[in-house]
Amino acid sequence: MMRLVDFSYEQYQKALRQSAGAVVIILPRSISSVPQDVVRQFMEIEPEMLAMETIVPVYFAVEDEELLSIYEQTRAASASQGSASAAEVLLHTATANGFQMVTSGAQSKAINDWLIPSVEGRLTGLGGEDLPTVVIVAHYDSFGVAPWLSHGADSNGSGISVLLELARLFSRLYTYRRTHAGYNLLFFASGGGKFNYQGTKRWLEDNLDHTDSSLLQDNVAFVLCLDTLGRGNSLHLHVSKPPKEGTLQHAFLRELEMVVASQFPEVKFSMVHKKINLAEDMLAWEHERFAIRRLPAFTISHLESHRDSLRNSIMDRRARIDTKALTRNTRIIAEALTRVIYNLTDKGAPADLQIFTDQMQIQQEQLESVMDWLSSQPRAAQLIDKDSTFLNTLEYYMGRYLKDVKQHHVKADKRDPEFVFYDQLKQVMNAYRVKPAIFDLLLAVCIAAYLGVAYVAVQHFGLLYKMIQRLSLKTKHQ
Asked: Quick one: pLDDT at residue 224?
């Protein structure tokens, strides 16, 4: 057993080498109370823990009074054995309390026919049939070394929060004819994002390969993917191919730069170019799924690199979200997107024009509420099915602002599955207070000695009686 504050990769490997029955890592109830250097160290270790194969089960438990009591007792027992003499160690071993940890779960088995759901909704533009479409995407699932503890506040609860706020804002603009733009807006909350964007992959296949009528087939202006937007003073636009001048992608990049420079000078903005590496097992960003199908796409994030450990960590909790930064980033994206859709720059609108003010301002309280809801529950892909409360709530929320809201599902191929999920992700562990084997041996010796004395007394009762009688007579004479 080890607490998070005392955890290190060296201790973890040592426990595995000692052929321990199991390793229990105790996490604090509030991650915000843990020093930041401890959090960063654990986040860096998590990928190595996931990559390491081990026959020893590893459990994560949230601390409480009983668990901490067990931990302190076992730690005190280990410390006394290292510093005491041989006799003291033997006595302590015989009298100390031990604990036997037993789990109630069965052997983990692969789950067959698991569906990863995604949710789609749209706002139809005003005008002809062949209107350009802007696609806004964010994956909702989280990831970490322990699925039931993976709350994914920044990655990617913040992305879903921004997507839902954009849906609310543009649904109001599309309600009135004079502010109804000539662009279709397609919103997609994808599942399986942490598993190589499986939900997005199947959605693209269904819309591009298996149907004759789809907004993705007609005229896609660009795809904007939202990822990790909940903190920091920087924004990065990740692209697989730099946009060419004269395209809507380049116009969006120009508007982002203009909005940041004129209204939010404290924010550092840059474009990060990274080619798609098809030799790697996992894609870096979600926009690469669209780029592979030759759709113009990019991802906006406060992270400069896709390798940042924050994206796949159980340490990504609500306390790490800066609501003011999330609100600011939402406004930057909304302002830039609106300037592109309504072509405001070419119409002479000043760079410092603030569009979302007064009745149309970004609602920080609503963003906070959505973040609280998202980060209050684990959202690992193997925990979210099509009938889960989380997905039904997400579908209902999108249905308040969007039209034609519906689910899409992806199931692993039975012959060559790209992902396999297992059950028994959460188990109950019972602790039984036990004595060591040497205590039983010592108790047996004491019982044998007692029985031996009793046997001798019975066999020589007459002699024993005369001896006691003689001693009592001497006492009377004295």
From this structure: 98
